[in-house]
Write a structure and sequence with these properties.
Helix 1 crosses helix 2, helix 1 crosses helix 5 and helix 5 packs parallel to helix 12. The chain is mainly α. It is built from twelve helices and two strands; from the N terminus they run αααββααααααααα. Strands 1-2 form a two-stranded antiparallel ribbon. A hairpin with a 3-residue loop joins strand 1 and strand 2.
């Protein structure tokens, strides 16, 4: 495509850092305190690096057609953002950003005004930033620039490895927590009044992710004891005993990665827990409908 590997890597890291700076400034202003954005430990957001590289590689031929470039850039970057949100949710059982409250959103993963901003960013890259970046790269001494880029790439891969390890650990914690809660849901559905299920759903909707991830389940034990008398251990789940020690290790204090993610993403959601709360709501509605039919 007329680009060297050196150029592509340089584009990726430069625009990842630029994207991180932009995200950090915007979110810090919105939250009114400093927020260090990003999935990784370093000061870069790879989604921006990937998005801008795709725009440069595939849309540079549209340089003479700015209107088409704008819409193609918006569409390409929006597709990347949607796929990134979807894949991270499937991998880690959590949603890192959510546009559900924004107008014209698609499943809360992308929204219209962000897509329009992606199009403007594509114009800025093609007509302004990237020509200047190319001139700067051409002026660098390859004997210095190439080893530096290699070192940065190795550090990035190391960062990526540690971050993925932390994210998969967090995902395991979310799975363990959701199993405990789902076991409680099944038992309450079979043996407890609707008020107990409603209490469980309300609690799941009100607790913050940090409270969930640290396994603060005293409220759940109290709920089970209230509805199952002197059998709290059995009520929590017969299946829980075989993995209780493993789960107890998971449901402790937040790790460094988890604390950082919760600070970086104010709209972070535990989607497994949210789906469980929705499922309880559906079951309550079904139970009410059945009771009304029986009365009739």
């Amino acid at each position: 495509m007329g680009f060297t590997l050196y150029q592509i890597l340089a584009y990726f890291f430069v625009y990842s850092v630029v994207g991180w700076l932009m995200e950090t400034v915007l979110v810090s202003i919105q939250q009114r305190h400093l927020v260090k954005r990003g999935f990784l430990y370093g000061c870069y957001c790879p989604i921006y690096g990937c998005g801008m590289c795709l725009i440069i590689l595939f849309l540079s031929p549209l340089e003479e057609k700015p209107v088409l470039l704008y819409f193609a850039g918006a569409l390409l970057a929006t597709a990347l953002e949607y796929f990134t949100s979807w894949s991270m949710e499937r991998l880690f059982n959590a949603r890192w950003w959510d546009y559900s409250r924004k107008p014209f959103n698609l499943n809360g993963r992308v929204c219209l005004h962000i897509s329009l901003a992606w199009g403007l960013l594509a114009l800025l890259i093609i007509y302004g930033l990237n020509p200047a970046l190319d001139d700067w790269l051409m002026g660098l001494d390859p004997q210095i620039a190439h080893p530096v880029l290699l070192a940065v790439s190795l550090l990035f891969l190391l960062d990526l490895g540690f971050s993925l390890w932390g994210a998969f650990n967090m995902s395991g914690r979310i799975r363990a927590l959701s199993e405990i809660l789902d076991n409680a849901r099944v038992l309450l559905l079979q043996n407890a009044p609707a008020e107990a299920l409603e209490t469980l759903r309300a609690r799941l909707q009100s607790l913050r992710p940090a409270e969930m991830l640290t396994g603060r389940l005293d409220w759940l034990r109290s709920l089970m004891e209230k509805n199952f008398g002197g059998r709290p251990r059995e009520a929590l789940s017969e299946r829980e005993s075989e993995s209780a020690r493993r789960r107890a290790r998971l449901l402790k204090r937040l790790r460094i990665f988890e604390r950082r993610v919760l600070r970086a993403y104010p709209h972070f959601k535990l989607t497994r827990i949210n789906r469980l709360a929705d499922q309880i709501g559906q079951q309550l509605s079904k139970r009410r409908d059945e009771q009304e039919r029986n009365r009739d």
